[in-house]
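Propose amino acids for all 318 sites.
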């Protein structure tokens, strides 16, 4: 199959660059990963292109066959693809793009925000397959999102489309969000938010919290809830109340066919999904109250699937 068209999805995270090689039908042909270098000079770019060489070699494929490379990166990416904000990682997007284009001369190279890419992954091969409009919510250390309308992700003017973690849900909050604002969804519904709420509930009820491994160890809070810890249930109820209300607001703007929850915290959905659905129903307008809330199916691979899918869409329009 020397002439088949290939697409590569790169998920650029803080510790590793995950790589996926796909054919035109979106079938995963191989996976790889390299530790994330500072992506600001030729040494960093070469670490990535060497990873691509290894990925192609393992599948006995050639760089010339690659028609698209998508990169999921942890910062806002506006619809025009020009990154104006500094990411949480060191990246020189134009430099990296040029190096990738040199390495794979027939490839269209596109950047996409990581949560938006994960949403596109769920659309192409995961829980949202077959839907045209849905909202992806990723719950981890923070809360991110991706809004897909008619099969396309909404990036927006400055790339803030889908940044649902920063919806202001509680204007009287005094604590600050990571972004500098106050009372944002992320402060209550992220893994970090759940832990913060749990500690506050323990203090209010004068009970001893269970041992926690760091400020975003929501897993231990969910475990405590299973064991009947009242403060843990208070934190979970708070998370469900805020998140359900946020989703009800989103329904009035986007009216998605389905909400899809991803991120590490979604692994504990057996403990909170019923409560979240009930909370959503309580706040949603009646025509939207039956919108399903489902769990993402691609896990950590959503980024590579989505990045490759974005590249495939780009190659089709070029
Ligand atoms: Zn915020």
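Proposal:
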């Amino acid at each position: 199959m020397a002439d088949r068209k290939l697409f590569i999805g790169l998920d650029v995270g803080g510790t590793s660059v995950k790589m996926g090689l796909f054919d035109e039908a979106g079938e995963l042909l191989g996976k790889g990963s390299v530790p994330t270098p500072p992506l600001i000079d030729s040494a960093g770019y070469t670490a990535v292109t060497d990873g691509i060489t290894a990925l192609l070699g393992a599948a006995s494929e050639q760089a010339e066959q690659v028609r698209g490379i998508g990169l999921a990166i942890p910062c806002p990416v506006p619809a025009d693809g020009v990154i104006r904000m500094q990411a949480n990682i060191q990246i020189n997007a134009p430099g990296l793009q040029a190096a990738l284009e040199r390495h794979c001369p027939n490839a269209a190279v596109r950047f996409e925000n990581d949560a938006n890419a994960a949403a596109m992954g769920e659309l192409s091969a995961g829980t949202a397959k077959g839907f045209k409009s849905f909202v992806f919510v990723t719950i981890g250390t923070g809360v991110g999102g991706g809004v897909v309308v008619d099969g396309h992700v909404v990036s927006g003017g400055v790339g803030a489309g889908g940044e649902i973690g920063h919806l202001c849900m509680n204007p009287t909050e005094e604590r600050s969000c990571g972004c500098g604002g106050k009372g944002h969804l992320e402060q209550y519904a992220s893994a970090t938010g759940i832990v913060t709420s749990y500690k506050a509930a323990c203090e209010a009820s004068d009970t001893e919290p269970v041992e926690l491994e760091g400020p975003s160890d929501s897993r231990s809070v969910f475990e405590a809830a299973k064991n009947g810890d009242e403060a843990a249930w208070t934190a979970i109820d708070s998370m469900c109340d805020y998140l359900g209300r946020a989703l009800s607001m989103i329904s009035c703007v986007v009216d998605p066919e389905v909400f899809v929850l991803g991120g590490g915290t979604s692994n504990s959905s057996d403990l909170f999904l019923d409560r979240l659905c009930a909370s959503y129903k309580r706040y949603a307008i009646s025509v939207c109250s039956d919108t399903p809330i489902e769990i993402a199916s691609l896990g950590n691979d959503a980024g590579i699937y989505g990045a490759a899918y974005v590249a495939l869409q780009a190659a089709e329009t070029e």
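The chain has two domains: 6-120+300-317, 130-296. The pocket of zinc ion is lined by residues 166, 177, 179, 181, 184, 186 (CB under 6 Å).
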